[in-house]
Amino acid sequence: MTSHVVVGVDGSLNAVRALDWASDEAARRGVELRVVYAVPERDEAGPVLTSSVARARERHPTLTVESRAAVGGAVRALVRESEGADLTVVGTRGFGGVTGLLAGSVSLRAAAHVHGPLLIVRGDHPCDGDRGVLLGLEDDSGADAAAYAFLEAERRGVQLRVVHSTHRHVTPELPSLIPGTSPGQRRRAQNDLSEEAVPRFSLAELRDAHPAVAVETRTVRRGPAEALLDAARESAVVVIGAHRRTSRIGPQLGPVAHTLLHGSHCPVVLVPTAA
After folding, report:
1. Strand order in the sheet with 65-71
2. What is the tens place of the pLDDT at every residue in 148-176?
3. What distance in Å separates the CA atoms of residue 227 and residue 165, rounded to the nearest whole number?
4. What is the dihedral of CA 268, 2, 208, 155, to 10 degrees?
5. Closest to 89 (Cα-Cα) out of 155, 29, 39
6. Which of 97-111, 127-141, 159-173, 205-219 has the highest mean pLDDT?
7. How far apart are CA 8 and CA 94, in angstroms?
8. Is the pTM of this model over 0.90?
């Protein structure tokens, strides 16, 4: 199967932003761009697909662009077309009549079901130039997200910033007369060292595989969503592992993904993690 990037369009301004991001990503990877428009009737897709293909080719004249009219629901089309794709790209609004990617459960189910990495184009500032790639890392379960982030930083030629968040409950205790000698203080010190070691050991092989990527790692002791929202202000894109939880209504995204999709200042890439 040909390597490709998928983007969902519908003619809206937000879909145009997604198209531009997707064409840049496809060109950066040297792969085909597949433009998809979900419509009730196939004949309705012509004008939007034609203008979308023309815009992508104008932006990247050597880029191979294919267009597809998907008859039926937008979410189903997006999930179907994402299978085998290197990356799937959508905007925060639009895509076949969905009023907002984050506004309702239908759109969130799409984000929870797509195959492979999903890039949601959102944010309110320019994300080009020297802005780096941001990786949110909690533990070793984010290995696929880390690998994606290293490749993205390498493709862009920018720095990779890793935010490793720890947010554990600490039981209060009476202070020791000698600083740093109470059992609780010793446990906290040991835990601090262990937690700070997680990103170093998790990223060691990736550093060796991508020696040209400058990496800055920071461990913060607060909720991961809050820490990533702050760091996203100065980033080109934020990458996190998508922890999909099974409920009575099917797979659902975790709380960190929900928070970023609603409030990130830059586009967000969700990389599915192993169950």
Report:
1. 65-71, 32-39, 4-8, 87-91, 118-121, 268-272, 235-242, 132-137, 160-165, 215-220
2. 999 999 999 999 999 987 764 444 555 55
3. 7
4. -50
5. 29
6. 205-219
7. 9
8. no
